[in-house]
Design brief:
By secondary structure, the protein is mainly alpha-helical. The chain is built from nine helices and three strands; from the N terminus they run H-E-E-H-H-H-H-H-E-H-H-H. The radius of gyration is 26 Å and the shape is elongated.
Length: 196
């Protein structure tokens, strides 16, 4: 169960981060302007929520690093996962519920050259929402659950294993049995391993 706890925590955070990253590239909102053609403007998630892509990448990196860190950093990463997840949920939920005009401001400014909240509010005729903001709320929730699960179970996880350690106690002579590779290394240095 302990090995599964680590795996489940890492997978939840990675899945949430990957889903949020994919969502940041998808169209969240479609904007029709009062004057300026019938073709709606597509607003991707990265424009609607500017911090979505960086937070998604941070969740992915955190999930990968969580699989090899020690006990103290597990708790730090659990808290960071919670913070990232909550931020993604709040920002995405705001778009999903309110559909603020500010979320489309960059796209409207790029298309028209006009800026300012009042001006953009007058230019926008309709804003149509896609399912991606709701999907991103779910992605942020996965990161939150992964963070909570990490905090709840991190004290029972086993160590990362010998290959990730850098302390002198595990890499010095006598730390492990002498094997065939060590014998070849001895020959390279001019020592005869058969003379022992």
């Amino acid at each position: 169960m302990i090995r599964r706890a680590r795996t489940l925590s890492v997978l939840l955070i990675l899945l949430g981060g990957a889903l949020a990253l994919i969502s940041s590239t998808q169209t969240w909102l479609s904007v029709t302007l009062a004057q300026g053609g019938d073709e709606p403007l597509a607003v991707p998630g990265a424009e609607a929520v500017a911090m979505l892509a960086p937070l998604s990448l941070a969740a992915l990196a955190l999930g990968l690093a969580l699989s090899i860190v020690g006990t103290v950093l597990r708790y730090v990463f659990g808290v960071l996962a919670l913070a990232i997840g909550v931020t993604v949920v709040v920002a995405s939920l705001r778009i999903a519920v309110e559909v603020p005009v500010g979320a489309v401001a960059a796209a409207v400014t790029t298309a028209t050259g006009l800026s300012g909240d009042a001006t953009i509010a007058r230019l926008v005729a309709t804003i149509t929402e896609t399912p991606w903001p709701a999907v991103t709320v779910g992605a942020g929730a996965l990161v939150i659950v992964g963070g909570v699960f990490t905090l709840a179970t991190a004290h029972r996880w086993r160590g990362a294993g010998r290959r990730y350690r850098t302390d002198a106690g595990t890499t010095g002579p006598g730390a492990r049995p002498h094997d065939a590779i060590d014998s070849w290394d001895d020959l390279s240095r001019g020592d005869d391993p058969t003379a022992r």
